Amino acid sequence: MQDTKPLLIETDFPPIQRGKLDTLQVNLGYLCNLSCTHCHVNAGPTRTELMDRATIDLVLEFLEKRNIQTLDMTGGSPEMNPDFRYLTEGARKLGVTVIDRCNPTILGEPGYEYLPEFFAEHKIVIVASMPCYSEQNVDKQRGKGVYKESIAGLKKLNAVGYGMPGSELTLNLVYNPDDPILPPSQVELQADYKKALLDEHGLHFNELFALANMPISRYGARLLAKGDFVPYMKLLRDSFSEANLETVMCKSLVSVDYEGHVFDCDFNQMLEMPIISDKAKPHLRDLLDEDVEGNAIAIGEHCYGCTAGQGSSCGGALSE
User: Fold this and answer.
1) What percent of the chain is modeled with pLDDT above 90?
2) Quick check: helix, strand or coil at residue 56?
3) Mean pLDDT across 279-292
4) Residue 127, H or E segment
5) Half-sphere exposure (CA, 13 Å, Cβ side) for 196?
6) Going by C-beta distance under 8 Å and a sequence separation of 6 or more, which residues neighbour residue 293?
C-alpha cells in the first residue's frame, strides 16, 4: 500500500493552537468486522492491535484526574475490544458522556447481540457509520450485503429507543463520500437521509454528520493508485475556509492510540505525528499533570481536509 505521509508533512497550513481540553478520543484497536475502501485507519478483520487493560485503566485515571467531559471511543470496531464494557461502565460511573463510533453491522455479529440494550442502559451516544442511504453505494464502499446488515442494526437501535422522537437516546449517522469530492450540504443531505430511511425502512435518527475523507492510509493509497491524489489535494486547498479554523476538533480534543500514545487528532495518529512535546513520543501518562492548552498543534497538508468548504470534524460540518 502506497503511503501518502511524505506528501503531507510539508505544508503552508496556518499555525493553530490548542484550546481547553474537554474530549478524550480513544482508539481501542484496529480490529473490525469490515474493510471499507474509505477507511483511514486501515482497519479490518485480520488486525490484532487492541488496547490492553492497563492502558484502559490509565484512560479512566486521566478522565477523572483531568475532569474530561467526553470520552469518544473509536476503532476499528471499538466494541470488539474485550474490555469495551469495562471502559464504558468505568467512564459512565465518573459521569463522563460516552460516544461510541459504531459500525451498525457489528450488532448482528455473534457475541454482540447484547449491545443495543447495553448502549441504552448506559445512555451511550451512538455515532453510526452509514455512508449513503443507497444500497448500491454502501455496498460498493463497504462490501456486498453491508447495507442490509446496517439497516438491520439501526432497526435494533430504534427498537430500544435510539433516535426515536421524544427519546433521550441519541443516534447520529455519518456520511462519507466514496469519490474524491467534498461532502454536499450537511443540512440538505440530512433531510434526504431522514426521508429516504423513514420512507423505505421506517428508521429514525437524530443528526447526520457529513465528513470529508482524509488522503491518508487506505484511502490515500487508493487516491495515489487512481491518479486522484493531486486533484483531490487541490480541491481541498482551493476550498479552504479560514472561518473553520475557529472550531476544528483538535482545539478541544486529544487522540490516544491503542498503546496510549497521544496525538492532536485521529488523522495525525494514523500519520504517526504526535503532539508537539519535549518527548519524542508522548504518552497519556505524560499528560496526567501537564496542561496542553495553548500548545501548538502538529499540522500537515491533510489539515485542509478539515477546513475545506463547510468543514469536517468528528462532529460533522463546522459551518454551513
Assistant:
1) 77
2) helix
3) 91
4) strand 125-129
5) 13
6) 18, 19, 20, 21
